Amino acid sequence: MQPITSRQREVLDYIAGFVDRNGYPPTLREIAGHLKVSGTLGVMKHLDALEQRGYLRRQSGSSRGIILAGRTAQTASIPVAGVVRAGLPQPAIEDIEDRLAIDCSLVKGGTFFLRVRGDSMINAAVMDGDLALVRPQATAENRDIVVAMVDGEATLKRFYRCEDHIRLQPENPGMEPIIVRNGEGEVAIVGKVVGIYRPLD
Amino acid sequence: MQPITSRQREVLDYIAGFVDRNGYPPTLREIAGHLKVSGTLGVMKHLDALEQRGYLRRQSGSSRGIILAGRTAQTASIPVAGVVRAGLPQPAIEDIEDRLAIDCSLVKGGTFFLRVRGDSMINAAVMDGDLALVRPQATAENRDIVVAMVDGEATLKRFYRCEDHIRLQPENPGMEPIIVRNGEGEVAIVGKVVGIYRPLD
DNA sequence: GATATTGGTTATCATTTGAAAACCTATCAT
DNA sequence: ATGATAGGTTTTCAAATGATAACCAATATC
């Protein structure tokens, strides 16, 4: 990130704190009040400078339209999906059961929770009923745990790409892998599993 | 939480999504636009209803002054502890590795994360390196997974209280339970495990 | 010395926005 | 039938808010 002046840092820190305390960003005048300056032009200039250097984005014309870079919100509210339908380019999520807030360091893009059904990943310590944190993406690396669409249903499998086929391997000795040879059939990767959460209470 | 109508649910979901996308809440008119209604009074009534039922708070007179319950306030920043020391009445936590934000529906009191070491709970699908969400309490119910102090170290075990002894059962066939007869020795329960989180990225 | 850059003042203006009044229309339980 | 409740329209108003103009001053930088 490009360097900023101490005054600009002051503005940035105030905005970040304000968002934490209130859940929404301050107005120009609220910032001005904190800086103990009158008028909004000085504030505008600071915001312009911070925007140019990539520290925030502004929604012009909109009150409180300040978006801090790297923290759409410090915590994101993640939908918990019961069913995932593979629509392209973005998978549509149906049956949103609930929402959970989670740390943004774990979240990018349209991440969502998917409730795991079945025991196909039991050897990876993923149980029926767990919540899989899924980051949508159409491709995967070997050994990634992915959500893939098979027969219109979303399943969790470990992903392997070989020379002439793709293998979706369950982590359950009693279950057979799904093998799709190149050119035969299609594997729709919905996303990669980046976390597992299991409420026990 | 008190029940709300489907229309009110629609408003609440829209606000939650808006905050996620933009980092700040919508105005009354933005909500009205989404509901495809003209005028702001209908929206005001929904917000009033939602506020009365505790789903949000409003900052009157302030634009975008909507604070969702379960966000700013109800998202807690939880310490991730590397080591737990059994001090009474509250266990002290040393070596705070990090902090994670998590939904408050899962959090009460001084809840904290503890990094799991070892495979003692492998059959309960808890792996080495997982983060156990621990709610501090000195007692437990049968079959609860608890954090207990044994030889000055915190371990995860399943808790059983029988007539004349307490048994701390590992969920690992290769490990022996710890049995403490009434009057002989002491079992210090640090807390109950109310969730498991495993980052995979 | 010329000239950016940063940070500021005061004042003004057009919009955006929250709030409210007056009134309408279903639905549902008493 | 008769309210209560949820949900809505149109209109209006005052306050909050972003934007901009005209201008000032200190501090670098070339």
TrEMBL record, chains A, B:
Domain Peptidase S24/S26A/S26B/S26C as annotated: residue spans: 79-194
Gene Ontology biological process terms, A to Z: DNA repair; DNA replication; negative regulation of DNA-templated transcription; proteolysis; SOS response
EC number: 3.4.21.88
Organism: Geobacter hydrogenophilus
DNA-binding region: 28-48
InterPro entries: LexA, LexA-like, LexA/Signal_pep-like_sf, LexA_DNA-bd_dom, LexA_repressor, Peptidase_S24_LexA, Peptidase_S24_S26A/B/C, WH-like_DNA-bd_sf
Catalytic activity: Hydrolysis of Ala-|-Gly bond in repressor LexA
Similarity-based family: Belongs to the peptidase S24 family.
Site entry: Cleavage: A86, G87
Domain LexA repressor DNA-binding residue range list: 1-65
Xref: CDD domains: S24_LexA-like
Record bears the keyword ATP-binding: no
Keywords, alphabetical: Autocatalytic cleavage, DNA damage, DNA repair, DNA replication, DNA-binding, Hydrolase, Repressor, SOS response, Transcription, Transcription regulation
Protein name: LexA repressor
Subunit relationships: Homodimer.
Enzyme class: hydrolase
Function: Represses a number of genes involved in the response to DNA damage (SOS response), including recA and lexA. In the presence of single-stranded DNA, RecA interacts with LexA causing an autocatalytic cleavage which disrupts the DNA-binding part of LexA, leading to derepression of the SOS regulon and eventually DNA repair.
